[in-house]
């Protein structure tokens, strides 16, 4: 059994906290929920490329964000699971020759799962394909555009993520 290091727990906790704070910023701007959402916190979904601690960090951050912003139980559970699934897939792509592929799992997973949450948990009257497009656009802005900027900023400092 592998021991979990203090660095791993610290990184996961910091990532979770950053996710919550950025979700609250997005929420205060009216961007964090609904059929058109641009969660600034989703840019953190590139972090599995740098540390495996991002997987639990993103999951817990999303879970706490959904709890604290008054989401429905379905959204809390399945929205958080969507983030967990995306983080695992992003982590699997961390060593790919095209490093920015780590931005795609959050886009795809959220495009598939979130429209059903919006439809069945919040009663959004739009069709599933339309919500797939709107959620996808928001995820591209958050994960691909902002996440790529974050990726390149962190890639220059990759050494700070390595565990001893």
Element layout with pairings:
Blueprint: H1 6-28, H2 54-68, H3 73-92, H4 104-122, H5 128-155
Helix pairs in contact: 1-2, 2-3, 3-4, 4-5
Describe this structure in words.
It is a single chain. It is built from 5 helices and no strands. The model has no long low-confidence stretch (mean pLDDT 92). By secondary structure, the chain is mainly α. 43% of the residues are buried. The protein has a single domain, classed as Arp2/3 complex 21 kDa subunit ARPC3 (Orthogonal Bundle). The longest helix has 28 residues. It starts with 5 loop residues before the first helix and ends in a 9-residue tail after the last helix. The protein is 64% helix and 0% strand.
List keywords for this structure.
single chain, transmembrane, Arp2/3 complex 21 kDa subunit ARPC3, Transporter, 5 helices, transmembrane helix, mainly alpha, about 160 residues
Quick rundown:
With 164 residues, the chain is mostly helical.
**Average pLDDT, all residues:** 92
Unreliable segments of 5+ consecutive residues: none
- The CATH topology is Arp2/3 complex 21 kDa subunit ARPC3
**Radius of gyration of CA atoms, rounded to a whole number:** 15 Å
CATH architecture: Orthogonal Bundle
How many distinct folded domains? 1
Give the class from helix and strand content and strand pairing.
Answer: mainly alpha
């Amino acid at each position: 059994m592998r021991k979990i290091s203090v660095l791993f727990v610290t990184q996961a906790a910091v990532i979770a906290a950053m996710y919550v704070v950025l979700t609250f910023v997005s929420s205060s701007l009216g961007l964090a929920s609904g059929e058109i959402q641009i969660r600034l916190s989703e840019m953190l979904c590139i972090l599995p490329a740098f540390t495996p601690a991002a997987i639990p960090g993103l999951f817990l951050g999303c879970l706490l964000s959904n709890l604290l912003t008054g989401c429905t139980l379905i959204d809390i559970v399945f929205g958080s699971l969507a983030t967990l699934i995306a983080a695992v897939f992003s982590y699997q792509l961390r060593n790919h020759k095209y490093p920015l592929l780590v931005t795609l799992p959050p886009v795809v997973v959220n495009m598939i799962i979130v429209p059903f949450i919006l439809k069945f948990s919040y009663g959004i009257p739009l069709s599933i394909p339309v919500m797939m497009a709107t959620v996808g656009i928001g995820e591209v802005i958050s994960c691909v555009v902002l996440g790529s900027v974050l990726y390149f900023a962190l890639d220059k400092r990759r050494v700070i993520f390595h565990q001893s």
